[in-house]
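=== Per-residue structure ===
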Amino acid sequence: MFPYIALVSFSFLSVVLAQQVGTLTAETHPQLTQRSVVLDGNWRWLHSTSGSNNCYTGNTWDTSLCPDPATCSRNCALDGADYSGTYGITSSGNALTLKFVTHGPYSTNIGSRVYLLADDSHYQTFNLKNKEFTFDVDVSQLPCGLNGALYFSQMDADGGTGRFPNNKAGAKYGTGYCDSQCPHDIKFINGEANVQGWQPSPNDSNAGKGQYGSCCAEMDIWEANSVASAYTPHPCTVTTPTRCQGNDCGDGDNRYGGVCDKDGCDFNSFRMGDKNFLGPGKTVNTNSKFTVVTQFLTSDNTASGTLSEIRRLYVQNGRVIQNSKVNIPGMAATLDSITESFCSTQKTVFGDTNSFASKGGLRAMGNAFDKGMVLVLSIWDDHEAKMLWLDSNYPLDKSASAPGVARGTCATTSGEPKDVESQSPNAQVIFSNIKYGDIGSTYNN
């Protein structure tokens, strides 16, 4: 499948002039200490190169400008962004604030996704093996149904311009997104408009899905709101951002037949049996800011070794808090981190398909780090599963008392996007004080 898709992609190079760049709005990246961030291209205004007519409005393409991928890529340009006024993205010192609903001059924006830049045209890439990654976070204003996420994606550092010269926008304009869910809602993949087979979402006025998806390995350091959190590696069998179609995307009933592990191997303290560990007033008190430390240990304690364990700890009010222990029948009570043994046992006890192992497990996740992964920060609500997989009981066809089903205290009726957007428009997440270094070097212990 993928060699064929690659050939299709390259066959367009002679006819697609560019995934082009507009000049109607200046692009000024918000500063974050010595780096800056850039807004994902999917959120940007996409308009005709000859003027200001929208190429994409709401969840539909203008078929006169975009009758096919080549013509659309020739006719349309991504433009600069008003980060604070349109998207609710602001920075101050080492802190980045992402607001949920922003009423801009021309539209209402829901959520956002940004990437850390190394320079004006390249994302910062990280290899976390034998390292730790640390940040402060304030999730006190994130209710049920929302996700303030910090994670890593195996995106191209240049946003795809090197592999796909028809992409002229690149990292400067936030192109090249991919993740383990192989999302189909990406408007441009491999520098080409994803207009073929595009279907507007039946329940999201701002999104739709095209024929193609965009797959790559993903390391979720932090998916959370004020009620629940999880950290989750998602390996893939592909080693670069890959355009997929049909079964290779893991679409529909073929969830476990695609190239990526969509479930991942997650550590959610509530799901793993400690229901008093993280939340308002709990051991890690989400009513106030705290520090999240994630350590990536290897088999030989070197950056070239095999990734063997992902550990988590917290710091709040000057106190180091070790990660919670597992309290699930059938699992050892000493478990408190992600290892191959933890993942295998968890999948068996919870009755889940072990696609984590079949897609290469921690070794494959480590191989993705070897190539370098891009830091992503986002805030979003969930039109597919209402975020119940993070903060409530999920799946809904199983008893809440079954192992692995209860993931947080949110009601199973919570997380409906129209309710979250109308009732919590001022929700936000604040990430700050991001650090990266040797094990034990980024926090006071």
Remarks:
- The chain is about 15% helix and 30% strand.
